[in-house]
Amino acid sequence: MKKYKILIVEDEPIIALNLQEILFELGYEPCGIANNRCKTLAILAKNIKPDLILMDIYLQGPTTGIELAKELKKTLPNVPVIFLTANSELATIREASETFAYGYLVKPYKKNTLFATIELALKKASEDLQKNLDFESVQNINKTLEHKFSLEVEAKSRTIKLKYGYLFDKEKDVLYYGNEVVKLTNKETEIIKALCKTPGQKISQEQLEYAIWQDEPAGYAAFRSVLFRLRNKIHKDLITNQNNTGYRIELL
After folding, report:
1. Is residue 146 part of a domain?
2. pLDDT digit of tens for each residue in the chain (252 aa)?
3. Crossing angle of the two packed helices 205-212 and 186-197, in degrees rounded to 10
4. Number of domains making up the chain
5. Distance CA 65, CA 85 (A)
6. Are 131 and 171 in a shared domain?
7. Which domain holds residue 198?
8. How many alpha carbons lie under 13 Å from residue 122 in its C-beta half-sphere?
């Protein structure tokens, strides 16, 4: 059975030692006694991590137990704090509750009350930690799904699904047949790019010629030669002739 480590922050030595003895009797492991902020931080600096802190509200020095608890919340967010005090004023209790304390014991307290308060605090802290882990896990899953969705949207926006199992990636200027890349020359790729700017719509032969030879078209024979070689690498009906007035690439 795990022995829970408990840090005692109490400025009255007799009370602190008595508390340490009681904790031993209850089966806990007191991992240090401090009477102010500096000594508390010095203990924690030794790489001692308590499972719970018993914190007196009024400590030696300018820093109160409430202020120290707020400070420790940043470095030990999952370690529960139980406040010990002889002050039972409502204002003090309200101020202590702002630190999200897990318990509040007014001195003098009985051993069984101390035990019950510690056990409840440890159980509640464990449940809160699990909830935080579950929440973080859900957040991570959501982020993964969002990232995956954004990649899918991006992929859809940059790719064009064509007939006969072809797909053109506009960003990479690559034509795929299934998962295989169709190996095309630069001029053949320029024809596919030009046709995929307005997929499913007719593009004139002149426009395609200018896509290949931007400075000056090389002529009908040169164009027909490039188109012939391209059609030999793909399905014969992927690029169709539109009444000899232009060409169209067929969408899925």
Report:
1. no
2. 678 999 999 999 999 999 999 999 999 999 999 999 999 999 999 999 999 999 998 888 888 888 999 899 889 988 999 998 876 666 666 776 666 688 888 888 889 999 999 999 999 988 888 877 666 666 666 666 666 666 555 555 678 888 888 989 888 899 999 888 999 999 999 999 999 888 888 888 888 888 888 777 667 788 889 988 998 999 988 999 888 788 999 988
3. 130
4. 2
5. 10
6. no
7. 162-249
8. 17
